[in-house]
Amino acid sequence: MSKINEWNEKRKSKELFDQIKSIQSKKFSSKNICINDVNGQALTEPDEVLKRWNSYMAHIFLDTQTKRKQKMHTKSPNKTWQDVEPEPLTSEVEAAIKDLKAGKSPALDNIPAEIIKNSGEMGIKALHHLCCQIWKQQEWPEDWKLQELVML
Q1: Per-residue confidence of the chain (152 residues) as pLDDT tens digits?
Q2: Does one domain contain both 110 and 91?
Q3: 5 and 57 co-located in one domain
Q4: Same-domain check for residues 102 and 143
Q5: Number of domains in the chain
Q6: Residue that finishes a domain, picked among 77, 109, 138
Q7: CA angle 104, 61, 113 (to 5 degrees)
């Protein structure tokens, strides 16, 4: 730290940034994982932390889903959400596929983004059809509701 102060006082910016970079390149990893439970008590055991994250995320998604359903039912009784919102367009699905980032680890379905991106016109049509079916049914497939949280 004294070198950083020294370079800063001497206005030697290159040396200063080199010193900061050498400190930042050292990887920091916290060994203690701590989170509060609903009562404000600190949880430090990995199993307890994982259970708390699971219940927290379930609460958020259930709460969001409930609010959306309430919002849908409070709109004008003469119009449904289908009257207001059209089905997803093929071009929207295609744009979403193009925006997928390559080189990322696949989700729980083990389908890498590269396969989806290289599926061609048939893949776009299949995903568009799937999205339209989900849109009409107003319900996510059960497998899509699963998620995997990886704590870094």
Answers
A1: 677 788 778 888 888 778 777 777 666 565 667 788 889 888 888 888 888 888 888 887 776 667 666 666 655 555 565 566 788 999 999 999 999 998 887 877 788 889 999 989 999 999 999 999 988 888 888 877 777 766 66
A2: yes
A3: no
A4: yes
A5: 3
A6: 77
A7: 15
| pTM of the predicted protein model | 0.45
From residue 139, how far is each of 39, 42, 53, 58, 134 by CA, in Å?
33, 36, 24, 17, 6
**Closest listed residue to residue 117, CA positions, set 130, 104, 131, 129:** 104
For residue 48, give its domain range: 31-77
Please tell me the distance from the alpha carbon of residue 149 to that of residue 147, in angstroms, as a whole number. 7
Domain shared by 92 and 146, yes or no: yes
C-alpha count within 13 angstroms, C-beta hemisphere, residue 2: 0
Going by C-alpha positions, the residue among 30, 31, 35, 78 that lies closest to residue 55 is 35
